[in-house]
Amino acid sequence: MAEQVKSKKRVxxxxxxxxxxxxVNAMLDLVKHETERIDSRFLEPACGNGNFLAEVLQxxxxxxxxxxxxxxxxxxxxxxxxxxxxVNEP
Length: 90
Known about the structure:
This protein is mainly alpha-helical. The protein contains five helices and no strands. The chain has helices at about 10-15, 20-30, 30-35, 50-65, 70-80.
């Protein structure tokens, strides 16, 4: 299990709070039906390392892989707009 990094100074100075993978999964499981819809969209305004966005994308790709053949998979990916912007500030 990954160790959760905590720093009172970073929370105070930057409002930075690390979300562990177990919390990411628990929260996304609450909206599981949306993570399995190929056309649903997610916004993570406080992106940090992108823990939520990466897991949402992984879940959607797993659904596509299970539901579609290779040629259908390429068609679905060409129609979807998967954009993520990551800013890593020290």
